[in-house]
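During the no-cost extension, the postdoctoral fellow (Dr. R.K.) reprocessed legacy sequence entries with the updated structure-token encoder. One reprocessed record is reproduced below for audit purposes.
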Amino acid sequence: MKISNNDRAAILVQALPYIQKYSGETIVVKYGGNAMINEELKAAMMRDIVLMQSVGIHVVLVHGGGPEINKMLERLQIESKFVKGLRYTDEDTMEVVQEVLAGKVNKDLVQLLQQSGGKAVGLCGLDGGMIHASKMEGVDLGLVGEIVNVDTTIIKDAVEKGYIPIIATVGGGLNGTKYNINADIAAARIAADLGAKKLILMTDIRGLLLDKDDEDTLIPAVNVSDVPRLQRQGIITGGMIPKIDCCVEAVRRGVSRAIILDGRIAHSILIELFCDEGCGTMLY
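Re-encoded structure tokens follow.
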């Protein structure tokens, strides 16, 4: 589709107030799902992040890597174990998680972002003692951890030097124990401790839907005080529950807005930030 120069100018004028609003602010993006698997979406996402940095936004990228971990476990013939539908992380699995997340996936993203014209540095929760974790309480999932505290010093240092931090969510505990940390939870906590303006969780659905089988029933905004009611009504169910919980936690810790965004839509993050109407569900 050909866009006239007048249309281009109109788009930039519409975006200007939002560029001014977010310039100098920190936005934490949790990157995963389809946007991380599809090569075209991945390339578009990297360009979007470089654009955000170019207009003065401090972007911090937190990523998962479940599909890559699954492929490596299969290749090494390490059986995946599940407890109540959740992956159990034993020592062999944890070794693979660290190698794949902090190694292959993290460095591939660094390289891809730099190929798009950005400056990036790859980190994991072990670097600079960033993520201090302990064994998750309740259900025994082995070396799955929960966050005790986050030291944002190394993240801030990277941002101040003009780099986009790309963070793999491996945490460190006592006596050198390493823990697998859920990327949504880590992104929410990092956003809160950085005092981020926004937390954006990329996912594979439009957002929170009034009818889970009808994407035209997107709920564009939710006050965190309404979440318990929506859960009782069965509107927040299944895999959406932990994502909403992460957003609620981030907002209650001081993040201005948390957005669940459809990573299947090219440039959805730019639409959300720089257009009059976003394209996901915002919690405030």
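The radius of gyration is 19 Å. The chain has a mean pLDDT of 92. The remaining legacy entries will be reprocessed before the final report is submitted.
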